[in-house]
Each structure stands twice: as structure tokens, then as C-alpha cells.
Amino acid sequence: MDLPLDPPTRIQPVSATPVSVKRAIKHLDVFLNEFEARSRNSNHSGNSAVMVQLQKLREALTKEKESKKIK
Length: 71
Fold this sequence. Notes:
By secondary structure, this protein is mostly helical. The chain has helices at about 20-40, 50-70.
């Protein structure tokens, strides 16, 4: 019989600080580079789904930034 799965940890923010799209993209790029390096070094292939979702987020932020430039 399989062991029961533990639900993911729920993170509740206690405060929020607005940042510009440009700054969010910079922070996301730094995080993606570091996360990818850690994943490569530890040979965790399960992180590929996380990488894909973070890259999609970055693409969406870039599109938002470009659409704001046009207006």
C-alpha cells in the first residue's frame, strides 16, 4: 500500500510591497539562474515543472511590460 502524500506547505504572506514589472523580471531572472544551477548540481529532474512555470511567468511579465510601453 502506498504511503499517504503530505499536502504542500501553505505559505501565508504577512505583508506585500509593490514592485515594478521591470524589477520583478530582474528578480525572477536571478532566481531562475540560481534555481537552474542548483537543480543541475543536485540532478533533481522533478524541478523541470517548476522551471517551466517560472519561465511562463517571466514571459507573461515581459509581455505586460511591452504592452505598457506601447500605451
